[in-house]
Design goal:
By secondary structure, this protein is mainly α. About 70% of the residues lie in helices and about 0% in strands.
Length: about 600
């Protein structure tokens, strides 16, 4: 081994050559053989090779590690870029430029920046996924009140903005769904509140029974929006609406009963006004009833108690009410000139009430039906009765006119003579219309009887029989007038002949007989056969007493009929009544 170095006296450094020189000096002094020297030098050379090898191995390992680090860095860079969804990165160094350490030094800041970006992106993903997880838990109902959702697991293999946008879009949809659900919940809660107010129920206990978070003291964002909560709210609203419908129907039925009972018993307005809060919703729909407490249970109980009280009161006043309706029925028949057995009807009502075999409401309903039918019957007879009234009135005028024509002093300038003269002129016009009026009345009466299959009676006497009797008497009266005129002409001719024979003639100023003063007739009719006003059953007095008194008067006339009746209507009624009674008994009402 050659000496490769020597001591540098200027630097004072120890080199391999100086050490070898020192070793040779030592060997010279010791006297080492060349063989030993070569052996030791070979050993030194081997040891130097080993040292170099170790250094080279270390350097190789270091280079391999650096290359691995560089590869790992590049792989991490590629992975980060892929995870972040970046195709390239600004400031990324060229792979082939510079030494390994230079490349590592160049890529390190890029990695550090990408790691920071990754951490921020992970936080964003975690926040979005946490909100999504929380809303999904709220919708599913997995989260209890005040409970927070667990930390979500972020997939770090895909942290791209596209993926983040997908999560954010999903979050927005869930937030919209949450908002919609929250509005539904609030609408349901508001509806429950209004229904509870109308029904008089405790809103707090009702709503918290559905879910504790629906209490007003809890914030809006903390209220449950789960499917179960919405379902239970919808069911609660449906039950409350059904309850409202049933209670409104019950209250309206009670209000209708109250109204019927009030009308039945003529309850004063002041007493009725105490229940205006009940009757005000009698015809209202379910949606129209919004006043708090309008359908409260105590209100319905109050109405039930009042209906029960009025029912008991109605039972005690049943006879009074029934007789009142019977009087109304009798008045309708009296105005229609229909005869009924009022005494038998009243006795029947008394017997039904005392026996208890019929409900008061059924009895009153039956009487109401009778009143309705009586009004219909009266309405159907109205036109004929009006013509009968006109006919009787015209006959009275005819009777007065005949009395007036027989009065020899009718043209005297006495007080009221001009009034009687005007009345006579009008009476003549009316009398001339009597035949047409009678014909029209007969035609309408026959049409009425054919339509209904009943006989039209007027105060118990068949109207057609009265009209036929009137026509016959009128014809007899006309014949009597003709005979009177013929007899008068005969007497005038006889007087003329006597005057020619004897030369004397009664003075025209000498009255031939007692004078007859025109005035009211004692029997209300006329001696010439015109119809009596009495037969109209006092048409201007519709009370039941006048009807009964007229009927009694008509019955009495059967036993005390004069040989020569003063008016034809009385006779016509008597004969018709006798004829009908001989054939069959007249019904109580036509």
């Amino acid at each position: 081994m050659a000496v490769t170095g020597a001591q540098n006296p200027l630097l004072g450094e120890t080199t391999c050559g100086s050490l070898l020189q020192q070793l040779q000096q030592i060997w010279d002094e010791v006297g080492e053989t060349d063989e030993e020297r070569d052996k030791m030098l070979l050993q030194l050379e081997q040891e130097c090779l080993d040292v170099y090898k170790r250094k080279v191995d270390r350097a190789s390992k270091s280079r391999a590690q650096l290359l691995q680090d560089l590869a790992d860095s590049k792989l991490e860079l590629s992975r980060l870029l892929s995870a972040l969804g970046e195709k390239s990165f600004v400031g990324l160094p060229d792979n082939s430029m510079g030494t390994i350490k230079e490349q590592l030094a160049a890529i390190a800041p890029v990695l550090e920046q990408l790691w920071k970006q990754k951490e921020e992106r992970v936080k964003e993903f975690a926040e979005v996924q946490s909100q999504i997880q929380k809303i999904c838990g709220e919708i599913a109902g997995n989260l209890k009140l005040g409970e927070q959702a667990g930390t979500p697991t972020v997939d770090e293999s895909d942290l791209s903005l596209k993926k983040l946008d997908e999560f954010q879009s999903q979050l927005q949809e869930l937030q919209k769904e949450k908002s919609d659900r929250l509005h539904k919940v609030l609408d349901f809660v508001s509806t429950v509140h209004d229904l509870c107010a109308v029904l008089g129920m405790d809103f707090f206990s009702t709503i918290t029974e559905v879910h504790p978070s629906l209490n007003d003291s809890i914030g809006v964002q903390s209220k449950s929006i789960s499917n179960d909560t919405l379902s239970r709210l919808a069911k609660t609203v449906l039950l409350l609406k059904e309850d409202k419908q049933q209670k409104l129907q019950k209250l309206q039925e009670l209000a209708a009963q109250l109204s019927d009972l009030w009308n039945l018993m003529d309850t004063p307005v002041e007493e009725r006004s105490l229940f205006d809060h009940i009757t005000c919703n009698m015809s209202a729909s379910v949606e129209e009833v919004t006043i708090p407490g309008a359908l409260a249970l105590d209100l319905i109980e109050q109405a039930e108690v009042e209906v029960e009280r009025l029912d008991q009161l109605k039972a005690s006043k049943m006879k009074e009410i029934a007789f009142k309706k019977q009087t109304e029925l009798e008045e309708i028949y009296a105005r229609a000139h229909i005869e009924i057995d009022t005494e038998a009807a009243r006795q029947r009502i008394m017997a039904l009430i005392d026996s208890g075999d019929v409900e008061p409401s059924e009895l009153l309903a039956d009487m109401d039906n009778q009143i309705v039918k009586a009004k219909e019957e009266s309405l159907s007879r109205k036109e004929i009765l009006e013509k009968v009234e006109k006919w009787m009135s015209t006959c009275e005028e005819e009777s007065w006119l005949e009395d007036y024509n027989r009065d020899e002093n009718r043209y005297n300038s006495s007080r009221g003579a001009h009034i009687n003269l005007k009345r006579a002129e009008k009476a003549r016009i009316l009398v001339n219309k009597i035949p047409a009026l009678v014909d029209s009345l007969v035609a309408k009466t026959r049409a009425w009887e054919e339509e209904r299959g009943l006989q039209f009676s007027y105060d118990g006497v068949p109207l057609l029989a009265m009209l036929e009797e009137y026509a016959m008497l009128r014809q007899d009266r006309e014949e009597e007038k003709r005979r009177t005129r013929d007899q008068k002409r005969f007497h005038e001719q006889l007087n003329t002949e006597q005057e020619a024979m004897f030369g004397s003639r009664p003075s025209p100023n000498r009255p031939l007989g007692p004078k007859k003063v025109v005035g009211p007739r004692a029997n209300g009719g006329a001696s010439n056969g015109t119809p009596s006003r009495r037969l109209s059953l006092n048409i201007h007095q519709t009370g039941g007493n006048s009807v009964r008194s007229a009927s009694k008067e008509r019955r009495n006339s059967h036993d005390h009929r004069p040989a020569a009746p003063a008016n034809y209507v009385a006779m016509a009624k008597e004969d018709a009544a006798l004829h009908v009674s001989g054939c069959d008994t007249l019904p109580a009402s036509p």
